[in-house]
Amino acid sequence: MKTFDMPRIYEWSEIKDEFTDSLLVGNGGSMALSNNFVYESLYEKAREKENLDQATQQVFSKFYKDSHDFERVLYRLWQANYINHLFSVSDEEKQKIKDGYNLIQKALLKAVKDIHPNHRELKGQLFLVGKYLSHFKTVFSLNYDLIIYWSMLEYNDQYKNVLKDGFITSDSLISNSKVFAKSRIEILKKPYNGNNSATLVFYPHGNLILHRTKSQEGKIQGHKAIYNSILENIADFWQENNSIPLFVSEGTYQEKLEVISSSNYLSYVIHEELPNGGDSLVIYGWGIGKQDTHILEQIARGTYQQIAVSVYKGNKEDEQIDREIKEIVERIMSTAKHIDEENIKFFNAQSVGCWNN
Fold first, then answer.
1. How far apart are CA 229 and CA 225, in angstroms?
2. Statement to judge: residues 84 and 183 lie in one domain
3. Does residue 236 fall inside a structural domain?
4. DSSP for 14-59, written as a single string
5. Which of 8, 14, 167, 249 could, after both became Cys, cross-link 178 (CB 3.0–4.6 A)?
6. What is the pTM for the complete model shown?
């Protein structure tokens, strides 16, 4: 039986030139900027604040007892409202569904606002994150929060259009929104406006700034002037345009796959972009848990030949770090069988020049 030898933990500066293709960011990336993101369950936060009534809690319990995924519950009620119209259900009964929908939508935004730090708290770190993102050709963020979005705005303020997300203006769009341009992705991957590089950012689990209506999916537009009111703007947009958020906040990987399969954007990112991110992949702040098995499976079927994984040392004992690294190696190699152990490297998450450092 092969013994596990504790690999070296590099500083980012020692390996960064080997890893320039793709970056995958998990919740640890957000937690590095604010401890607020340690809170995992938006549903429990909504219950704690008494923002859900008995009826709406029963909808969660009936359909998604384990995951409590807001996006999926909202989608259920959205469908129910459509069916009520088809079968000419009374206006009084229709209104009950609409009221439940609106209550859950507001509870979601309140829960997000309760845990989400404001822009002022993070401003000093956002440009550094944007600079780190620009090191890569492609970035995949598993987080629904606004960290990546704000970082892109901050960095692009100085280096125009280096960081792009594939959403472009369209004449047919509803107010204050953009549409994902899959047909223009290859063009968008190339530098322009005199830049030396270009980075394309994708959200495999969606994001707060993404939405869907009955006919399309898009991105809610924002700019620096509304930094501190963006969550209110998002809430207003959802209500005014009869849309729902496009992000996967909780759930098992099977449940997440159901949401992903219902979205053209998420399906494209997961099945087309994620497996084709080049030869090298950096994983920052992602624990590679069972709930994200679907992400690891797409990495495994991809083109990656070497992987670098961040290690947060903090106040951990060496034995704990050893165990965590061993588990990560086992998870990667059990799925991505073509990647050898020697091609999995580890680096200090708090290295100079890494993420927000």
1. 9
2. no
3. no
4. HHGGG--SEEEE-HHHHHTT-GGGG---HHHHHHHTT-S-HHHHHH
5. 167
6. 0.86
Residue 174 C-alpha from the chain's centroid? 24
Query: What would the pLDDT profile of 97-123 be if each residue is shown by its tens digit?
Result: 989 888 887 887 788 878 888 888 898
- 240 in a domain, yes or no? no
Residue that is last in its domain, among 115, 143, 165: 115
Distance of CA 348 to the CA centre of its chain: 22
DSSP label of 226: G
In a domain, 235, yes or no: no
Buried b (16+ CB within 10 A) or exposed e, 3-39: eeeebebbebeebbeebebbbbbbbbbbbbbbeebee
Residues 226, 339, single domain; the answer is yes
Amino acid at 356: N
- Sort strands 217-220 and 244-247 into parallel, antiparallel or unpaired: unpaired
State the residue range of the domain holding 107.
43-115
Same domain, 57 and 154: no
Q: Is 130 helix (H, G, I), strand (E, B) or coil?
A: helix
Strands 177-180, 167-168: pairing kind: antiparallel
Same domain, residue pair 107 and 182: no
- CA-wise closest residue to 205 among 114, 153, 163, 267: 267
Number of domains into which the chain is organized: 2
**pLDDT of 142-184, one tens digit each?**
998 999 999 999 999 898 889 999 998 876 667 778 999 999 9
